[in-house]
């Protein structure tokens, strides 16, 4: 777990979400096919961790990878990041940040030295405020090739706060989540990465 000193529209279509570890407020739900993924509960992918939860009525498991950035002094999470497949079979990247952020400013995401893209907040719950974005091929490629992602939020007074997310292990973790690795899709979502396990 990293330490710190100091939903997109697709979410609206979903019927429920994960309760428990990340409490994403109904934003991420995976279909039964997610149980076919190679991810194991608690499995480490360098700076990412696999998590699986049982679906209602024993309909399989929903698996995802996550990373938590923690304020070392306050002993509380300041950024929780989840990657998983939505019920429509498409992958998504979902962030939860503490309450009190400036909602209208949205959340910024930058990969390495690239441009900052803005992601609107979907909702807030007692755990925090949630923003999510579908993982299109271009963004997947950037995440796999990148070394770090910078998540930018603004507090209630407008102060900019940058949170650094490690991308080490993202490639192996994401590839383990792929529900059905067909040859066509594998070639489009499996670019060269900078993971140390893929030199």
Summarize it.
The protein is mostly beta strands. It is 14% helix and 36% strand.
Could you please describe the fold and organization of this structure?
The protein has 199 residues and is mainly β. The chain has a single domain, classed as Invasion associated locus B (IalB) protein (Immunoglobulin-like), CATH 2.60.40. Helices cover 14% and strands 36% of the residues. It has 4 helices and 12 strands. The protein has helices at 9-12, 137-145, 170-177, 183-188; strands spanning 2-4, 44-45, 48-54, 61-71, 76-85, 91-97, 107-111, 117-119, 121-124, 129-134, 148-154, 160-166. Strands 1, 2, 3, 4, 5, 6, 9 and 10 form an 8-stranded mixed sheet that branches. The chain has a 4-stranded antiparallel sheet with strand order 8-7-11-12, with no helix packed on it. The longest helix has 9 residues, at 137-145. Residues 3-37 and 180-189 have low confidence and may be disordered.
Features:
single chain, 199 residues, mainly beta, Immunoglobulin-like, eight-stranded mixed β-sheet, four-stranded antiparallel β-sheet, 12 strands, disordered N terminus
């Amino acid at each position: 777990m990293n330490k710190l000193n100091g939903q997109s529209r697709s979410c609206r279509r979903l019927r429920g979400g994960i309760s428990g570890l990340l409490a994403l407020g109904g934003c991420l739900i995976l279909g039964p096919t997610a149980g076919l993924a190679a991810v194991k509960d608690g499995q480490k992918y360098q700076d990412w961790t696999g998590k699986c939860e049982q679906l209602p009525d024993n309909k399989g498991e929903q698996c995802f990878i996550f990373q938590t950035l923690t304020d070392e002094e306050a002993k509380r999470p300041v950024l929780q990041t989840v990657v998983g497949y939505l019920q429509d079979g498409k992958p998504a990247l979902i962030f939860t940040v503490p309450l009190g952020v400036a909602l209208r400013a949205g959340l910024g995401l930058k990969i390495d030295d690239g441009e900052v893209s803005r992601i609107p907040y979907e909702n807030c719950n007692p755990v925090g405020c949630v923003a999510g974005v579908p993982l299109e091929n271009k963004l997947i490629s950037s995440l796999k090739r990148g070394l770090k992602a910078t998540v930018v939020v603004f507090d209630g007074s407008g102060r900019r706060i940058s949170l650094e997310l490690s991308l080490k292990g993202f490639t192996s973790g994401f590839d383990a989540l792929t529900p059905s690795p067909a040859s066509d899709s594998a070639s489009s979502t499996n670019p060269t990465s900078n993971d140390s396990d893929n030199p």
